């Protein structure tokens, strides 16, 4: 029962963060710090292959901060700590597709990627 509680709280957190990122294109640091206990409560084991995406995002962030935001990198690392590689692939595929749809529908150059990631997390968790 405890696992269901933390997973539900984690999904609600992701929906809320996605909403904040969609409206403001930024996430306050206090919200990032709030996610640490949620990750800690669900942490089981590290799958090294899951860290391929966040390490790539970290390299992109180090090269050009205009391409990817700090919160995107932090949340990718959090997902890598919690998800196995197959779930990480599914989550990111949904997020990237949602990002493409947002670019086509909203016709703006900036993509609120944490919002897209939130959609990927919710859908892949509920599947």
Q: What's the helix-strand series?
A: HHHHHH
Low-confidence stretches: none
Radius of gyration: 14 Å
Global outline = globular
The biggest sheet, with number of strands, parallel, antiparallel or mixed sense and barrel status, is: none
Give the helix tally: 6
Terminal residue distance: 19 Å
User: What is the share of helical residues?
Assistant: over 70%
Account of the protein in words:
There is one protein chain. With 127 residues, this protein is mainly alpha-helical. 77% of the residues lie in helices and 0% in strands. The protein is built from 6 helices and no strands. Helix 5 packs across helix 6. The longest helix has 23 residues, at 2-24. The two termini are 19 Å apart. The mean pLDDT is 83.
Summarize the structure.
The chain is mostly helical. The protein has helices at 2-24, 29-42, 52-63, 70-82, 85-106, 113-126.
Note the topology:
Layout lengths: L1 H23 L4 H14 L9 H12 L6 H13 L2 H22 L6 H14 L1
Give me some keywords for this one.
6 helices; mainly alpha; 77% helix; 0% strand
């Amino acid at each position: 029962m405890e696992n269901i509680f933390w997973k539900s709280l984690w999904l609600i957190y992701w929906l809320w963060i996605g909403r904040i990122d969609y409206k403001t294109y930024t996430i306050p640091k206090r919200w990032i710090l709030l996610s640490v206990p949620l990750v800690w409560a669900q942490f089981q084991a590290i799958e090294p292959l899951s860290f391929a995406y966040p390490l790539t995002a970290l390299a992109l962030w180090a090269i050009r901060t205009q391409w990817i935001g700090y919160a995107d990198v932090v949340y990718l690392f959090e997902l890598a700590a919690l998800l196995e590689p197959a779930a990480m692939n599914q989550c990111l595929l949904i997020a990237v597709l949602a990002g493409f749809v947002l670019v086509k529908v909203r016709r703006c150059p900036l993509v609120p990627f944490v919002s897209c990631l939130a959609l990927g997390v919710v859908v892949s968790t509920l599947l």
